[in-house]
Amino acid sequence: xxxxxxxxxxxxxxxxxxxxxxxxxxxxxxxxxxxxxxxxxxxxxxxxxxxxxxxxxxxxxxxxxxxxxxxxxxxxxxxxxxxxxxxxxxxxxxxxxxxxxxxxxxxxxxxxxxxxxxxxxxxxxxxxxxxxxxxxxxxxxxxxxxxxxxxxxxxxxxxxxxxxxxxxxxxxxxxxxxxxxxxxxxxxxxxxxxxxxxxxxxxxxxxxxxxxxxxxxxxxxxxxxxxxxxxxxxxxxxxxxxxxxxxxxxxxxxxxxxxxxxxxxxxxxxxxxxxxxxxxxxxxxxxxxxxxxxxxxxxxxxxxxxxxxxxxxxxxxxxxxxxxxxxxxxxxxxxxxxxxxxxxxxxxxxxxxxxxxxxxxxxx
Length: 364
Ligand code: KG4
Ligand code: ZN
Fold this sequence. Notes:
Helices cover 47% and strands 18% of the residues.
């Protein structure tokens, strides 16, 4: 399999005219991305790996808010109802027909298996009916690749912190499609901690954006919550102790009949999360001598996280990349981008592609 750097090396052997032709051909590949791993039904058309022609997201958040979290069965049913409509809209907005597509990229894991199956089945059906090649994409690879959309110059190697509702991964991106996981969470994901703490302080679901907002009115140093260290690992995360510590604090205050200052709790909890994320990421950048850092995933929209990394990276002479919020949340443009590099690297999936709930990054 050839990475982009290998492709470049290969192309440097042929004459300039051919280089121009090869590059422009490669850049004009048109990919349809499909994403249904959790509670967003999404489809997108991306040209040349980095130009988004359409990005349609049907969010089910309002539906799940009623239950305080994502209900897998409801998510699957809603995906089935919406998937064709979302794909048609993505093609229409991109002014693209099926015959213009070079490949269909679809998230096949990790995620809710019933939800994933809807996207995978739709992608396989289109591929079977039209003969367009199919590329199965890892959801985290998609989140990482979201950074390529608005940073046309970003190329591996770089370090990426993926923080979402289901994942907290510190990933060394050695090349396109070549990942090394330096750290991961041992228990709750960062977004999960945000959602659980938000529920405990009465903010509702999804908690991340609500904590982000209310924390601006609070004092981040009001309560000292723990910054967890994981034994035998400099880069792994653990957020369940922090969550328990917030719950204990809330119970303690209730027992003493003392009032709870919600903005202070939110700001202090957020500070504990941010400190750990920044600490681990900056240590990894130093140890691996990397000077490019990116964040990705739903939690990467968080304003305190962005601010903290902006200044930490500036101090260390590291270039900091972050997608716009629309590309942080689950979307299909990031899947089409990841699928583009996989496709160029020769990855093809068969019609036996299946949804894999616990798919590991780098596994096929
Ligand atoms: O990437 P994503 O849309 O879905 C997963 O793959 O999990 O991430 C959703 C998570 C939720 O836990 C949500 O609370 C969190 O991202 N989130 C935030 C913010 N916006 C979304 N967390 C902290 N601050 C935010 N501004
Ligand atoms: Zn995600």
